[in-house]
Amino acid sequence: MKAFLITILMCANVISLTLAQKKEKEKIVKVSAKIEVLMEGSYSKEALKQKAIETARIKAIGDEFGYSIVQGINTQTKTLAGQTVLTTSSLNEVSNTIVKGEWISDEKGFPITKFIVREKNGDQEIWLECEVKGKARKIIEAKVNFETFAYKCQNEPKKCITTQFKENESMFVYFKAATKGFLSVFMLENGKVFRLLPYREMENEYESLVPVVADKEYMLFSPEHRNYFEGFGMVDEYGLTLSEDKTPLANMLFVVFSEKSFKKPLMEEQEGFKTLSLPKFQEWMNQNKGLDKTFQVQRIPISVNE
Asked: Most C-beta atoms within 10 A of its C-beta, which of 85, 213, 270, 278?
């Protein structure tokens, strides 16, 4: 009887925890943000307005729930009124930030945008004021039940784990899951998301993802490990390069795994790669997390220098 009572209490605790997690996930809160953007460069007024709205929403969600990737947030300055002041370059940096929440709806009458002209040292500057108010909810991420990391030697991955690469070094990715499932890998670079796995020539049953076996080690992007996937004996190799001016890169790998099959996001072709914008990629991840509790994402920062 005592053991039976303990079992009942344990079940009750599990149910209570599940309900609490569900309540936390579904909790919708009011969020708001106000930013000012200095108009410069080649933006049209309408394009700047849409970018500012997107950025203000990201800031509102990030301030409430936190950030998964922060690019440019620390470079913002504040006015006396507490508004965030941005240039169009930092506007892009904030727009390339992933937050731990999703926008649900705008409050009636918002967003509000207004262009104003200000005098500075005898010249005129055009500024955009943007204010958003609405509802958002936190994204509760599933606990990762796989091991993954980036490395730079082919044969002994755990001896050369790294997130920092020199120009022209090859990048490999290690993966091992506790259960069988499905895998895909993406890379964020300069605000654009590129899909790295499935490999570029894969199609048909490998169009959206690749199957993986429980407790098996996978050394991805390595030509010495090319026979993981039945009927496909090729790999894509990735040598990391810099632009002509040798500006260092700060990229982000996304290793996506689920016990259930999932569909790839809608993408475009660019230089042989399938790509999509960061907001569209985040929307795709959020939708899958909402539908599939086993859908998990591991983020790995990748830097490239001379």
From this structure: 278
